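Bench notes, afternoon.
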Amino acid sequence: DPVDKRGVSSGINAEYGGLSASLVSLESDIATPLLLAVRFMGTFGFNAIACVIMGVDLSVEKGNRQLVLIRSVCGFASFVCGTYAFQNMPVGEATVIISMAPVFVAIFSMCLLGVRARPCQIVMIILSLVGVVLIMDPTTWDTSESLSIVAVFTAVGQAFFKSLSYISIKKSNNRVYFMTMIFWYSLSAVSACILFIGILYPILSATGSSTAWLWTNCTTSQILILITISFLGFLAQLTLTKAAQLINTTTISLIRNSDILVTMIFQICFESIWPDWMQWIGMVLMIVCTVTILLTKEEPGKEEEEK
């Protein structure tokens, strides 16, 4: 087989992230910093419990600490940039820009991993981006206001940092156990969120400024949704990290883009929002591109050839 079946399975299971994102969209009243803190806290908590039960060694050898640090910093930066982008620009434009991640991954794979991209893969990446544009339906985009330059750059930053995160995971290969990498990543992220909220909340309260954007007193239903989001976020990180270690980074990033398909299915099932003909074409195009990439034989990188 051109692709490790375990990697494909893990990549497809990473679509838990798409369902998690859909639940987030239902609870827009929850403060974003709190939402991020709970998401990371859930990932850290569930992963820590699994590590204790499985007896996972959480120590990282000195030569691999740099990769774990890069993954942690880039993963957190990716979340922050993506959150800012979605808050400050239309969803359609933000999604299309962020979906450029496979392009960055292909470039970084060639430069840092020595992977030789096939023409077919490049064509499929471009066509998948076309599929993303069709799904987000550009005819509905709000063009009455000019896009914020900062928001556009943060959207690009999200794709950039996400790509570096994939590369660092692939670079670690089996030298760092995937659950160990998730542990340190989630610990760093939740610490940053708690520090951010812990410092700003007292300052805003003391000055009489609004803290609504920073903290939300959640209802019981919102708490249940937050717990669900955190658990799905953990499953997404678990399967995505394992997949990124097993298969080509360009492949996994393209599969990850199909979160959009999961979101569409979620909207059909729970919100009775049916896609139009343009969105159906986009969905089919993305599926065809993803399957084609999966069936394309990968060119080994320099490190794999040396082995």
